[in-house]
Amino acid sequence: MAEIRAADVAALRKQTGAGMMDCKKALVENDGDMEAAKEWLRKKGLAGASKREGREATNGAIAVAVEDGVGALVEVTCETDFVAKGGDFTEMVDHLVRQVLDTGDADLSAQPLAGDPSQTVGDAVAQLGAKLGEKVGLGRVVRFETDDGLLDGYQHVQNERGVIGVLVELGGVDPSDAKAREVAHDIALHIASAAPRFLSRDDVPADVVEKERAVYEELTRNEGKPEQAIPKIVEGRLGGFFKDVVLLEQGFVRDPKQTVRALVEALGGDATLRRFARVKVGEG
Q: How far apart are CA 181 and CA 163, in angstroms?
């Protein structure tokens, strides 16, 4: 094996714009051959990667798919809206959500790309970035699977690509029941719009509750309220906080007088809202 000198690594980096470790690996893989290493980097989509590395990838696209008791959601990020709505980009997002749905693995980056096991998903995403000239990355990936629940998903499309993705699971219902399916979809739409952070009060971390409580106590004192009245006022304000961030306590977007909990309970029996996921491009 040829000796890989630091000067060669630096020279390759200068010529290709790839990262130092990638340049070293390219030279190792190609026995020190500079031209072969350049081609290797190009094929991996790593040439120019270091130039793109510091850029902000706050745009992108989301795809959602639900099929046979499995739900998948995939986000791929990029720099501009123009690239995010392009055919090559949206095709990659759709391909990856199908892979998550079919393979059962949400840990995508190191997995072989479905349809082309000669490269990993990470490699394919890097190559897409090289082709499009932007910083492109694999964002959040979510996969739900259920044996006895009802899954639903929603993809909010804006400017020709998905920008918000939602998965939701109901339990204690017949997955074939039309009313239950309607409620599950209504809740998915609600989640996209209302952006809850937690399913129930029990899911809100204690430190988050205490931080809110401290803010409300100081606010109430600064308003000059009587000291003996402060605890009750603070609890009332905490209740308002929970109504804002807890899904089950939010007013349903189509009928704010009815909570999401009441919407689920109206299905009767053991109907429960088990879990949800919401991803919005750029918020990760």
A: 23
